[in-house]
Amino acid sequence: MKSNRLEKINRLILKELSEIFLLETKKMRGVLISVTQVRVTPDLGMAHAYLSFFPSEKGEELLENINNNIKSVRFNLGKRVGQQLRVVPDLTFHLDNSLDYLDNIDNLLKD
Fold this sequence. Notes:
Oligomer: single chain
Strand order of the largest sheet: 1-2-3
Strand content: 15-25%
Helix content: 40-55%
Number of helices: 4
Largest sheet: 3 strands, mixed
Shape: globular
């Protein structure tokens, strides 16, 4: 069972990462990055963030680009949550393809 503190930290990191990616994607036309879920380990050392991309064809490429720039994303996150958290957790980003999965199921049901 998760504690309330972990849930609050998950929501805080999700909100701040969403805003960071929103500002970055404004520079790139036709790309949208959504942070669908964040899971922080109980020791607050690692945060797993699940990202959804539009268009989904560019997902792997954009995820690789984000993973190459993970230090700058963590730095920006640290500037935003530095007052609330003593230590900014290490970040790992994962591709969330649940929307593609739901779309595939929807297409199968239509046939």
